Amino acid sequence: MSETDIEPAKTVDARGSACPGPLMDLIGAVRSAESGAVVRLLSDNERSLTDVPEWVDETDNDLLATEEGDDHHAFYVEKA
Amino acid sequence: MTEQIVVVGGGTGGAVLANDLADRLGPQIDAGEVAVTLVNDGPDHVYKPVWLYVPFGQREPEDGRRRLRELVDDRVTVRVDRVTDIDTDAKQVRYHEAPVPIDYDHLVLATGSTLAPEEIPGLEAGGHNYYSESGAEALREELLSFTEGHVVLSVVGTPHMCPAAPLEFVLMADDWFRQRGLRDDVEITYTYPIMRVHGNEQIAEWARPILDSRDIRIETMFNAESVDPDEGTLTSMEGTTLDYDALVAIPPHTGSDLIADAGLGEGGWVDVDPHTLEATSHEGVYALGDAAAVGVPKAGSAAHYQANVVGQRIASEVRGRTPTATYDGKTLCFVETGMDAATFVEFDYDNPPEPVRPSQQLHWAKLAYNKSYWLTARGLL
User: Fold this and answer.
1) Among B77, B119, B127, B302, whose Cα sits 20 to 30 Å from the Cα of B144?
2) Which of A27-36, B238-247, B254-263 is least confident?
3) Half-sphere exposure at residue B201, Cβ-oriented, CA atoms within 13 angstroms
């Protein structure tokens, strides 16, 4: 896992989340975040590696960094 | 000194837990060594899954209401009051109707979800929902007079109660309009915030072909931002605008202000260890059901299973033993796929849901469970 020094305003721990899943948890957190705030998503769902970038691409938000790990991944999303 | 256990919230999680504790700690309660208080802001326990059937005239809101006092063991003190403040350092709660704070030894927060349609401009005036008694009744009146036009079901809030219910609603509405000979004149659209029709991949893959086969239009990547009730339009953050004649929305949800005020978690959801359900920021506090921020649905079955875990853990603590019971994320849902068929999913933290083939038997099973739910609330099923 490549470490980042980004300080998130909020962390969403969606490890183990099956339903409705990590991406839905992330969207809820981003919706309620302030503009410019960074939300960190922790997910152990491999699908998040494609889901999160795909969703971010469709929005004005930015995916600042992705940390891929053996147990889980971390995604840093900055709200537009 | 009597050891005080306070459970805040008399929904599924709170009621099941109160009965579980009465069962496990009956002799200690009878001896005056332990007291269990269940606090609820009203006298009734409400079983929310009934509301899905109200718009279609199949159930009435009162079918989902019972007096909490009748459901809970007599050894539990049911207090109809509101908790206005939690002091986790002093281990005290303050009630609206009490002059001084009350000490607790064990606190459980089962405060549930609250609808917050006001977060989306125009939604309160322009949108219906079936996530409240009054909403379900108003939607029933709308559907009874609806003979042609465009019904839009939009999942706006996330997280929200019962993640399967939006799919259930459009599949039931499709069937209901067909049975009434109106479907050719009624268009149905389902919107969802991400690129699939459900957040869970397996459920999305299962549901997509069913929606397609039923001519239910799909708008994915649709995060509703505003509603114009006068124009009958719903606009997303992504820039898509839909015209509607009837809007059925899953409104944004929030948890209890108590939780954020006490520093236990953001948005009214308590940050907990997903296995022990203990608050991560303070000792002696548990959360369960919708109030617990774990990666499982805000659903009654999850609250039910969590209540049994918390009950066992608190009973161990009362007895001076190390609590060992843990929650594995178990959730169980029946999912309606029409007016006379349903599927079933069961999953946990390690095993994803795998919907089975819909059948009439599973539909009956869901209806039968809804009828026998009161045994769950009583701690018997």
Assistant:
1) B119
2) A27-36
3) 11
Are B245 and B232 in contact by the 8 Å Cβ rule? The answer is: yes
Domain-by-domain residue ranges, chain B? 3-113+255-318, 117-252
Q: Which of A21-30, B141-150, B215-224, B311-320 shows the lowest mean pLDDT across its residues? A: A21-30
Between positions 19 and 58 of A, the ones with CB within 8 A of B are 19-25, 27-28, 31-32, 47, 51, 54-55, 58
Token pair belonging to B241: 């605008």
**Domains, chain A, ordered by start:** 10-78 (3.30.110.40)
For the domain spanning B3-113+255-318, the CATH number is 3.50.50.60
pTM for the whole structure: 0.94
Q: How many CB atoms lie within 10 A of CB A3?
A: 8
Reply yes or no on whether A19 is catalytic: yes
Task: Give the span between the Cα atoms of B17 and B208, in whole angstroms.
Answer: 37
- At residue A29, the 3 state secondary structure works out as helix
Classify domain B117-252 by CATH architecture. Answer: 3-Layer(bba) Sandwich (3.50)
